[in-house]
Specification:
Radius of gyration of chain B: 25 Å
Helix content of chain B: 25-40%
Number of domains of chain B: 3
Oligomer: heterodimer
CATH architecture of the largest domain in chain B: Alpha-Beta Barrel
Strand content of chain A: under 5%
Number of helices of chain B: 11
Structural class of chain B: alpha/beta
Number of helices of chain A: 40
Radius of gyration of chain A: 39 Å
CATH class of the largest domain in chain B: Alpha Beta
Chain lengths: 767, 367
């Protein structure tokens, strides 16, 4: 029942839209715009940074989690925010912080001079000031209370600023040393004239900073030591800002230990300068370290030195945690470092026995570290000592960590015990949420067999668990675990679909997988998880897709009847959904871009199969040898056109890549070629042997020399394709059919046609 | 008649003079051409050094070394270009600072290192702007050097497939629009770029500087010597097909300690040698090139933990002789520069100038 192609446009469109929808809705392997990324570390994480005391000023720094950094502003912003806060507190928390920000950081010297003049009545009233100062609450406050010292200071600070800001640009960074020297002198005059201790401190900061940036280190030290005792200020973050410049100068004049000690103090007490203090903290020798420890006034200060050492990227954290704990068991960094170390171990060990990219992790990232197991034991030992001592502030964190380490070490029973104990120790929601995630990871890790009970649990988790949805790595974690269990139990299809989509299956399907999945589709007692595996978004199963794939397996081997029998299990109404084709086209000259003539009749796969079965019977029964040969020839064309080399390749394949011939390892016998988009490769139907069989049958059967000649030619194409894919590079091609054609059929019409159209044949003749 | 004769003789004289001048010109041009491309004739190998520190303040000893080597050519790093973190555009870093009171060699080759990420996602107009800024900054920074000869500018970049187009565009832009007519442009060439010129492309420059070092897998513990691994190098030099542009050669003089922690390479400590790891209370020598840290300790400002391991890598004079032996056949008998990386007194103390001079002669005296 051939159909006119015009009538089928609607169906093709419908099929296209349906396919597109399916592709969009199906879960695809993790990929980027350019296909899957296989070079990234692949692992799982269920550790939630929020369980640490994130309000700790150390958190963004010590914890080092990318996520935590996202929660915090950058260091420069912290500095600006804290400065604005201090101004705000100094001015009785009255002005708006955004207005302070504007006056301190955005206003110009000209703005401030105008404000100063307005204050002194040199200009007309307040309203004479232009916006935005006229509407600025901080400027208004300064005006109302005649805070001339504040304005003078801000004007001075803005004069200093260009000399103190490093220019990250293409301009040359030449400092105007004379101007800087003038400003230092001017600042000292203003310092003496200023009554407010707060602004006197800020003048010291500007003066000392200028001297430091001029690289006049001795002057920096002298100014600091001369001016600071003359300031009787309330505690201020500016003290640490000044101290940073003093310490920097000390470092330059050969007092590294004292400088390092001061930087440790800044690191500890001044969040806005913590990062720069960490960068500047330098110890070169064991002696310097000992001297620095001796400089510390108490154990807290000694613990801070170890915190600084722990901050370096590759520090051995347990060693440093032990040192910190020895000096100060309640040091808040201990928890943060604990989480950082667990994060490393989690990366090493979580899901290690089923992580499907374990080898890649080892090869590219050396993960897991060779001694990760020993590191778990080392940390467990430390945690137990801490628990025995009972000195830490939040024992529940340590107990939770202990349980998670048991899980990472594969001691699931003890992990469960520790998790149960945590429940009695805390009511903190964040901790309990973390506990729930750990318990779910434990439940999944503990599955030993791919049995129905496990699949029910998996379905239930997918359906009801909130933590499963909250932690993005859970679906992958569960999928990888189940894949491993399915592989162990021989469920190839389930293992495949647990990991990949039906689209991937269509690109490279194994017969065992397809049979395995067909069984699930038909199994009325299949559990919920199994049903999920084979379910499409529209609620139907993938059974028809599987039947189509099974049909293709038979068809690619030339088993037409079995193929038809399989395809017939798909309802007749749906046959068109699997494509419409015209496989009997005869093409002497192959072209890269080919479209069917509009007059060509197209058929669905079921109709073609019925036709092919009928033709095979007809050929066998046909008494007229040329008619039989013609039928065999048509069958040969159908099989040829279904292969990679034919125009109806879509009958057997979902995807064909023009680059596959380059990617193919010639002569390997493996027709699955690598492809950036498909993790399991792209199986191409290169095999023309069935087509060649029918062409040879046609040749042998025919009496008509024209039929024999064209059958020989098509058999030669099959022979040539086999040469391209099945012989190692460098092998000389066999041209048996071309030879026969040349020697015996040069007098036929078809010979002349072939010669004029086929360049391969022409090249053969000219050789 | 006399006048006429005088006129004839004047014409004859001028004619002869012109012919003579023309012949001399041709001869001189011919000689110049031979000097430029002295294949199979006398040629010169010019010794030079790289200076990679930010501050140029050569000591008397360094000057003495240069004098002994008869070398007045310095490849001087002017600045790096990088696009860090959230930077919107590539920016210059580590700009050169010159102590003008110290010795400065006569011939300076300004050298600029560019990271690959600086070249990613740049529009053509941005590449042109980068070239302009780069050249302007070289000019500005060169003011610190006083009156020196700058016949060449060198760009150092280990370009990749992703950055090749922009990098070559940058080089072309520099050469076509910025360099003075008497200035040449050169680019560093890594071994893989030497071996696969079709795949990696050939930079549009006048000369290439073959960096004959950093050729092994530094991150792998089993690597013997990533600085100068002649076995690996030999794979890159075969077949000995000439590179499409004239090459100079850079040989390494440096050494370092490769620090491994938990099986992972975490740091390179420059100029670390076995003599600095002799304290048996802290270090245990595994063999001549491998040392284990047995007690957590500070070393040169780095904190080492018990269990850390070092692989000590160095360029030794014997290796350099073998390298020259290997490269002799690769470098055509033409004049080129042999640049040592890099000029620093602790490094030079390990290499007497006679060794480095001898290496130059090895090239010059080959058959």
């Amino acid at each position: 029942m051939p159909k006119n192609s015009n009538l089928s446009i609607y169906r093709i469109l419908r099929l296209g839209i349906l396919s597109l929808l399916l592709i969009l809705l199906y879960p695809l392997p993790s990929s980027t715009d350019c296909g899957p990324v296989y070079t990234q570390f692949h692992g799982y994480s269920f550790l939630k940074p929020e369980i640490a005391r994130l309000k700790s000023p150390y958190a963004p720094f010590t914890l080092g989690f990318a996520k935590v950094f996202e929660l915090y502003p950058g260091h420069k912003t912290v500095q600006e925010q804290q400065n604005i806060n201090e101004w705000w507190e100094r001015y009785c928390e009255v002005p708006n912080k955004a207005d302070i920000d504007y006056v301190v950081y955005a206003s110009s010297i000209r703005d401030l001079n105008e404000l100063r003049s307005t204050m002194e009545g040199e200009l007309l009233p307040w309203s004479a000031l232009g916006p935005p100062l006229s509407t600025n609450s901080f400027a208004r406050y300064l005006y109302r209370y005649k805070c001339t010292e504040a304005i003078d200071y801000l004007i001075f600070a803005k004069q200093c600023e260009p000399h103190a800001t490093s220019r990250r640009s293409w301009e040359t960074d030449q400092k105007d040393l004379n101007e800087m020297e003038n400003l230092i002198e001017q600042g000292q005059v203003l310092f003496k004239r200023t009554k407010s201790e707060y602004f006197r401190l800020r003048y010291v900061y500007q003066i000392v900073r200028l001297a430091h940036y001029m690289k006049n280190y001795r002057q920096t030290i002298a100014l600091y030591e001369y001016l600071m005792p003359k300031v009787d200020n309330d505690p201020s973050l500016i003290e640490y800002w000044v101290l940073g410049h003093y310490a920097g100068a000390l470092m330059e004049v050969g007092q590294p230990v004292r400088a390092a000690y001061l930087f440790s103090q800044i690191f500890d007490k001044c969040p806005s300068k913590r990062y720069s203090a960490f960068q500047s903290f330098t110890i070169k020798t064991d002696q310097e370290w000992e001297d620095c420890l001796l400089m510390c006034k108490d154990n807290h200060e000694r613990a801070v030195l170890h915190v600084l050492r722990a901050e370096s990227q590759n520090a051995k954290l347990v060693e440093e945690m032990r040192n910190i704990y020895r000096y100060e068991p309640t040091n808040e960094n201990l928890e943060l470092l604990l989480l950082r170390e667990i994060k490393r171990l989690e990366k090493d060990l979580l899901g290690l026995d089923f992580n499907n990219r374990r080898r890649q992790n080892e090869r590219l990232y050396n993960i897991p570290r060779p001694d990760a197991g020993e590191k778990v034991i080392e940390l467990q030992k430390f945690i137990r000592e801490i628990e025995d001592d009972g000195l830490v502030e939040r024992p529940e964190i340590w107990k939770l960590a202990e349980g998670y380490l048991e899980l990472l070490a594969g001691n699931y029973y003890f992990a469960a015990q520790s998790f149960n104990e945590v429940k009695d120790l805390t009511e903190n929601d964040t901790l309990l949420n973390q506990l729930e995630a750990f318990e779910l990871a434990l439940q999944i890790s503990d599955w030993a067999k791919a049995e129905s009970e496990v699949e029910d649990q998996a379905a239930e988790i997918q359906r009801t668990s909130e933590v499963y949805r909250e932690f993005p790595d859970f679906p992958d974690f569960m999928r990888d675990k189940l894949t491993k269990l399915y592989r162990e139990s021989g469920d190839a299809g389930k293992a495949f679909l647990a990991q990949y989509s039906i689209r991937d299956l269509k690109i490279n399907s194994g017969e065992r997988m397809v049979d395995n999945l067909l069984e699930i589709c038909r199994d009325e007692s299949a559990n919920r998880f199994e049903r999920t595996l084979v379910m499409k978004p529209d609620g139907t199963t993938i059974e028809e897709d599987l039947l189509n794939l099974k049909t293709n397996h038979f068809l690619s081997r030339g088993e037409i009847e079995k193929a038809l029998e399989t395809f017939k299990r798909i309802p007749l109404d749906n046959w068109d959904d699997f494509g419409l084709f015209h496989p009997y086209l005869e093409q002497i000259k192959d072209t890269v871009r080919y479209s069917l003539p509009t007059s060509a009749q197209i058929f669905n796969k079921g109709e073609i199969l019925q036709d092919m079965v009928r033709m095979e019977y007809m050929a066998e029964a046909e008494q007229d040898r040329d008619k039989a040969a013609d039928i065999y020839y048509r069958l040969g064309l159908a099989f040829y056109n279904m292969t990679y080399f034919g125009y109806s390749w879509k009958m057997l394949d979902l995807y064909r890549s023009g680059a596959s011939m380059q990617r193919l390892r010639r002569g390997s016998g493996n027709y699955v070629v690598s492809h950036p988009e498909f993790p399991l490769g792209n199986k191409e139907f290169f095999d023309c042997s069935v087509a060649r069989l029918y062409f040879e049958r046609a040749r042998i059967t025919a009496i008509d020399r024209e039929i024999t000649a064209k059958a020989l030619f098509m058999a030669a194409k099959c022979e040539q394709n086999a040469y391209f894919v099945d012989t190692p590079p460098g092998t000389a091609p066999l041209r048996e059919n071309f030879a026969l054609l040349r020697e015996n059929y040069s007098d036929t019409d078809i010979y002349q046609l072939i010669r004029s159209k086929c360049k391969y044949f022409e090249a053969y003749l000219n050789k | 008649m006399q006048k006429k004769q005088n006129a004839y003789s004047r014409i004859f004289f001028l004619n002869t003079l012109y012919k003579l001048i023309f012949c001399l010109y041709c001869l001189s041009a011919c000689q110049n051409s031979l000097a430029d491309q002295p294949e199979n004739s006398a040629f010169k190998v010019t010794p030079a050094y790289y200076h990679w520190q930010t501050s140029l303040a050569l000591s008397d000893k360094e000057r003495g070394h240069l004098d002994s080597m008869n070398s007045d050519k310095l490849y001087l790093k002017f600045f790096d270009i990088d696009k860090k973190g959230d930077a919107k555009e590539p920016l210059p870093l580590a700009r050169l600072q010159v102590d003008s009171s110290s010795y400065i060699p006569d011939t300076i080759i300004p050298t600029v290192f560019i990271t690959n990420r600086s070249l990613l996602h740049l529009a053509e107009s941005e590449v042109a702007l980068l070239a302009e800024r780069l050249y302007q900054l070289i000019e500005k920074l060169s003011l610190q050097l006083g009156s020196v000869h700058m016949p060449e500018i060198q760009i150092d970049c280990d370009w990749s497939a992703q950055t090749q187009e922009n990098y070559f565009l940058l080089l072309k832009n520099l050469r076509d629009h910025h360099l003075a007519p008497n200035q040449q442009l050169s680019a560093t060439i890594r071994l893989h770029q030497l071996k696969y010129p079709k795949k990696t492309g050939i930079p549009p420059v006048d000369r290439g500087m073959l960096m004959f070092y950093n050729m092994g897998e530094v991150t792998q513990w089993v690597e013997a010597n990533s600085i100068l691994n002649l076995e690996i190098a030999s794979q890159y030099l075969v077949p000995a097909a000439p590179y499409p542009i004239p090459l100079d050669l850079a040989l390494p003089l440096f050494r370092w300690g490769v620090l491994f922690r938990d099986g992972k390479m975490i740091k390179l400590i420059n100029e670390l040698g076995i003599e600095q790891l002799q304290d048996s209370s802290r270090f245990q020598q595994i063999d001549r090139h491998h040392v284990q840290v047995t007690k957590s300790t500070y070393l040169n400002g780095y904190y080492l933990y018990n269990g850390d391991q070092f692989r000590l890598e160095a360029s030794e004079p014997s290796d350099l002789y073998k390298a020259v032996e290997m490269l002799k056949n690769y470098f055509p008998r033409k004049s080129f520069t042999l640049a040592y990386y890099h000029l620093d007194m602790p490094i030079l103390q390990r290499f007497p100038h006679v060794v480095l001079s001898d290496l130059v002669e090895q090239f010059e005296n080959r058959e």
